[in-house]
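Reviewers asked in the last cycle whether our approach scales beyond single polypeptides. To address this, we selected a multi-component target totalling 870 residues and predicted its structure end to end. The input consisted of the following lines:
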Amino acid sequence: MTLESTENSNSIEDSTNSIKQNTMQSIGANARTASHILARSQTANKNTALLCIASHLQQQASYIVEQNDKDLSNAKAKGLDAAMLDRLSLDNTRIESMVNGLEQISKLPDPIGEISDLTFQPSGIQVGKMRVPLGVIGIIYESRPNVTADAAALCLKSGNAAVLRGGSEAIHSNLAIAECIKLGLQEADLPIDCVQVMQSTDRSLVGQMITANEYIDVIIPRGGKSLTQRIGDEASVAVIKHLDGLCHTYIDEAADIDKAIHVAYNAKARRYGICGAMETLLVHQAVATNLLPTLAKQYTEAGIELRGCKQTCALVSGAKQATVEDWGTEYLAGILSIKVVQSLDEALAHIAQHGSGHTDAIITEDLSAANRFLREVDSSSVMVNTSTQFADGFEYGLGAEIGISTNKLHVRGPVGLEGLTSQKYVVFGDGHARK
Amino acid sequence: MTLESTENSNSIEDSTNSIKQNTMQSIGANARTASHILARSQTANKNTALLCIASHLQQQASYIVEQNDKDLSNAKAKGLDAAMLDRLSLDNTRIESMVNGLEQISKLPDPIGEISDLTFQPSGIQVGKMRVPLGVIGIIYESRPNVTADAAALCLKSGNAAVLRGGSEAIHSNLAIAECIKLGLQEADLPIDCVQVMQSTDRSLVGQMITANEYIDVIIPRGGKSLTQRIGDEASVAVIKHLDGLCHTYIDEAADIDKAIHVAYNAKARRYGICGAMETLLVHQAVATNLLPTLAKQYTEAGIELRGCKQTCALVSGAKQATVEDWGTEYLAGILSIKVVQSLDEALAHIAQHGSGHTDAIITEDLSAANRFLREVDSSSVMVNTSTQFADGFEYGLGAEIGISTNKLHVRGPVGLEGLTSQKYVVFGDGHARK
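The resulting structure, written as structure tokens, was:
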């Protein structure tokens, strides 16, 4: 669906569409205007806004919890499952965590306006790059209402106007948070349209957002794979997206066995449900006998189900036979598939075939093997002798994270403030003309 | 059209499609395989390939000219215009220029594998970024056969496999050049599928290329606006594109008059037909009387037609009255629109409304005005006291250029080798597990 497609419409259905379009058009036009002001606003104003929003969230905590209760009641009445209700739920601790997030983002360096690589060229002109906002960022997310504050803060600090479209199940919570954002923007003398939280939960608005090329520069979906996949398929606006996190750890023949057990255990057992959790363990045959029984015992004690290749099953009592589907499954659960490989080449081929390009690690003391793995594995994060669970914006020193990109273009891996910016060329002369 | 859409086809038409698809599928799969080998190939091999290709182009010059003659005869028979015939035509000078291009690219530093920003994090892990190829790049271009060699060289050096789809009018020339590329790749022990020049000129292949998400990572159209626009609209693969170059020069009230005349004349009169040529001159009212008559005389003597606002027409005899359309037109010809503005703000507003985000310049000695212009103009290149004609990869020190991007994401402005790469995170630990 494009904004143009129903422009000259006559039927009743079309005229309804046309009202919706006006809504998206006015939201988009307001965002665009606000983005120009925000792009040139000073760091101090942006930080003031962040701190004022934080302060309003604190002051309005009981109101937010009250509005969240409405969402929770509706969700229970609709029979949403326990995991969904947990994601939807806000209490004082979670509100405090939003407040801390805003305060942290206010302390990060402002990426906007930074000029780098400024060098003189043979013609006499001086050429460099200036970091600039992308413009307007559309965020489409599901049940977690904390995304409203987190995403608003990251967009604001990086000088981008934000159009936020949360799930209908969180609408009361989102609008309560939106009210705090609005007050904070006003106190910092920034246009309230810098952050617009959609008040309508009409599903067709998502379709309009992802095709509003005139108004929105990039869409970031935050939610399950089906949402992300659909947005990726249907959007004409550029999308920074995170699909699967099917992460591997490969224990090389030259691995230090103690390090390998320590790291491989952590990669799976620390938390199952995050995208950086290991889903498949690859073990070189030279170390499998020595290492797998011990490691498997630890996994089993942690309640992790093991599914292995034939060699694994021979070494690990209690391991089930893995099927072909297992190698391609992101469990996000207490299940691990294990494969014994004959060589580094086989490990690389397995990762190339089954991996999702998210995060993969090698455990080895062999520099050549480490270098080959680093160079040849085509994933957003490639690791040596450490846990895939480290794939995270905070752990990488970005200070904040809006998600992890599995795109190849623009930004790959954890996305912080810099991922929400672009660079333009700046050129200085002193009356220079081109020959 | 997606690759999946006719998979289970039965009719005769569908089975024809399915043969075409197999072609695109096999080209795509071969490119993907070659890209993995190329991504890990050494700099020396890539440079050897470039120099061998250059050498074969030199040796085969008369064969290439002969094949080009076939294209030219066909084009003449079809009644193509003189400009088109000129773009299509290859002679020894143009072949020598391709050869020089290849040699220059062989001398540029290899961007692949560079690790930057490697820092220790509080957890003890070390995090950095490694520059990597994008994978497979599809180039869709029109009549200029030299693009075949230029694009192949840039993709090769940046470690990307290339799928090249030139215009049907240049097919004999392109295939002759492709033969030289193939020989060069073989001599350097690189897979010949690193660069595939499409042998079929079937138009539906373009549709298949731009939706071949599984095989192609980015599409770069090189050609007229209608081709680029269509590809941008229909592609599901990411597109690095160059749309309009509606460039402005704003002469501020604090401009040095001599510099202003020198630069503004060059910005238009040096060459009309390039995307960095100025199309609209904005002049602050405080300097218009002093400056415009002299500058207009120079333009007129260079055969440039002037179309001005009311104030301009009052100052410049012979200037035609500009219409609203003029402010939005990329002439790429000997026509210039001129507007007198009351303030820097009016200039900024005019550029925001009518500009294309390509390249815009301010002429001023006032630091505050220069800073505002640099910060607020949202274009891929923003210039101070110099000619918009400098918007060019070679002038910017990139060493080579595959085009100028008017995208905001991934890469903006002139695109050299670095624009054809991405960065992945590399993480080093020594048995570190995440808390």
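The longest strand of chain B covers residues 421-432. We regard this as preliminary and will revisit it once experimental data from Aim 1 are available.
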